[in-house]
Amino acid sequence: MSKRNKRSTSLQRTASIIKPQKTENLENTKNHQNIPEKVNHQLTHVEQHFSGPIPPPELLAQYNQVVENGADRIMRMAELQSSHRMELEKNIVDASIKRSNQGLYLGFTLALVCILGGIIITINGQNVVGITSILIPLGAIVSIFVYTKERDRENKENKTRKTTPKSKP
User: Considering the entire predicted model, what is its pTM?
Assistant: First the structure.
């Protein structure tokens, strides 16, 4: 996928601070020292991250406890978003194909008009101008064909290079 737009969501939960616990003064120890109170604190921080429109199953189940059919609503939202995204991508691909075909037809028509004009000019006695009018569009067509073939070959090599695992020395 191209740079896909992924929704990233974070869930943070922090445990509450445990209340301080007092330890008794130990008066009956050998040294009869006054031992100060000990206070214990514990803080726990748990952080979960997930990517995409659908949360992990544990969190999804918790949505049902908060909102009636919460998990179903989230799943339905994700399905609708996915369908919408696929429809947009289909429209973009269809429009791209249509523009490409229009360019081909326009280029062919323009080249044909130039070649026919060159033939008519040649028939009317202006050979140099006529032949030039024929050769320029033919040269443009050939150069576009060669350029496209070269670009396709490079793209194929790049794809092959990306999919072939690199050997470790």
Answer: 0.50
